[in-house]
Amino acid sequence: MGEYPEALELQLRAIDLFRPQVKNGHPVLASFLKNLSTCELLLGKVVERVGRLDEALGYADEALDIMEAKFGRESHQTADALLASGRILRSLDRLDDAEARLLGALATRRTVFGPDHLNVAQALELLGLLYRDLDRSPDADQHFADALRIRQLTLPDSHPEVTRLRESLGGADRSPK
Fold first, then answer.
1. Which alpha helices (H) appear in 50-173, and where do they start and end?
2. Which CATH superfamily hosts domain 1-113?
């Protein structure tokens, strides 16, 4: 396990083979690009894990452009792409840019899914981590508390996501970017 550079090269090759067979802006291509650039799936973690964050951001931005063009600004696909690029921008320490993307993802997810959906909690937690990076502890704690409240509506108290958020509120989780 952990052959990330080899997995990255195979994923890039698959994208290169797929690109000529679809029109520019095809949603499936955008999904490949988003998965490659984000932390959502194992292959999606590859680019970040091998330290190619600028490249990952390029893929995330391309996916965002495609999703916005195909599905509009107020779609879960666009919100996912905003979240992906926000995560990468945070890892690149471009915190103001990350905040704008994550706030956009949060607003869209609230519109699409409603205020108490687990996808909203995910965006709130990422904003909490960002605000902790910015030394904005009251904002971080509020976002963590909101995310915890949502997760407690649907997940058992013993669930790892609930536990992690409790630790974040207690200050025990100072996870790296």
1. 53-71, 76-91, 95-113, 118-133, 137-154, 160-170
2. Tetratricopeptide repeat domain (1.25.40.10)
